[in-house]
Design brief:
Blueprint (H helix, E strand, L loop, with lengths): L1 E2 L4 E4 L5 H16 L3 E4 L5 E2 L5 E2 L3 E5 L7 E8 L5 H18 L1 H13 L2 H13 L5 H9 L6 E6 L4 H10 L4 E5 L3 E3 L7
Parallel strand pairs: 7-8, 8-9
Antiparallel strand pairs: 1-2, 2-10, 3-6, 4-5, 6-7
Length: about 190
């Protein structure tokens, strides 16, 4: 429960993963800031006949002007057997990403081209930071050494999953916990 002197809020669990995804889109401006672009298109990555995965989206992180990054995003509910399901899925994302960097770049570029405001943000960042254009910016982010980053957005993070994500993987995993609350109605007394 969240509360202050005037109001009380009760946690309302997400019933389906799609509700969490909708909530992420609803609050993405506050969740990610203006230097991060969240792209929620689901496009399969990986090579034909090899590990293929369908991330929930991508996050372009331009907060560090000298080291912009791209995160592969997984939105999930904790009750989905977090360690077996989520950790394995993120590991598979890393394998698919590494095996199909050109495809990942093209997917992200295509998503940006459909969003003029986000394209302009990347274009401005590229210009200010000595990248020839957005294409070259994406190329330099995705094709650098150790370029895979994962972002897990989850409703509740248990200790075991946190340990695996933070200390067992050889790539960075950022975790955001997102919960939904509803304002409790006051009971009126006469």
């Amino acid at each position: 429960m969240l509360w202050n002197k005037n109001e009380k809020y009760l946690e309302i669990p997400f019933d389906k993963e799609s509700e969490l995804e909708d909530a992420v889109n609803e609050v993405k401006s506050a969740l990610f800031s203006s230097n991060r672009i969240y792209l929620d298109d689901k496009k399969k990555i990986g090579k034909q006949g090899s590990t293929n995965n369908l991330p929930d989206g991508y996050l372009i992180d331009m907060t560090n002007h000298q080291d912009p990054k791209i995160f592969v995003v997984e939105n999930d509910l904790a009750r989905h057997q977090s360690l077996k399901h989520i950790a394995v899925q993120i590991l598979e994302f890393s394998l698919s990403f590494e095996a199909s960097k050109v495809k990942v770049k093209n997917i992200i570029k295509e998503m940006l081209q459909k969003r003029p405001t986000d394209w302009k943000t990347c274009e401005d960042f590229a210009r200010k930071n000595s990248y020839e254009n957005v294409d070259y910016l994406l190329e330099s982010i995705i094709h650098k050494k150790d370029s895979f980053n994962a972002l897990l957005i989850i409703d509740e993070l248990d200790e075991e999953l946190e340990t695996v994500l933070i200390s067992k993987f050889k790539f960075p995993v950022e975790v955001i916990t997102l919960k939904k609350y509803k304002k409790q109605k006051r009971k009126h007394t006469l």
